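Q: Sequence in, structure out?
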Amino acid sequence: PASIKDIANQVIVGTGHMENEDVSKYLQIIDLYIAYFEDGVSTRRGSMLAALQHGVPVISTQAPQSDEIFLKGSPIELLSSNPSLFSRELTDFLDDNWPLNRETPDQ
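A: Exactly. Output:
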């Protein structure tokens, strides 16, 4: 079977900055939102919060500055904010959990 790395080379899309109306369109069709933040996940991350509102599974980073709300019982999978560890942990997580279950607002 194909590895996560092989699949990722075919399906990962980096969008860069997007207008607000386009963000929702993308969030309705994606399977996973990966949000790497060097200083950790927080409630200041509007795009990440929008992904959660759309029921998209989110993988992000935990750091000392991360908001406590995301540290316990969060719907977000938190990985290391160290770039090398994040990459390894992300690959391991996806190898073990793909495909992810996406919650939709109707559920």
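The two ends are 31 Å apart (CA to CA).
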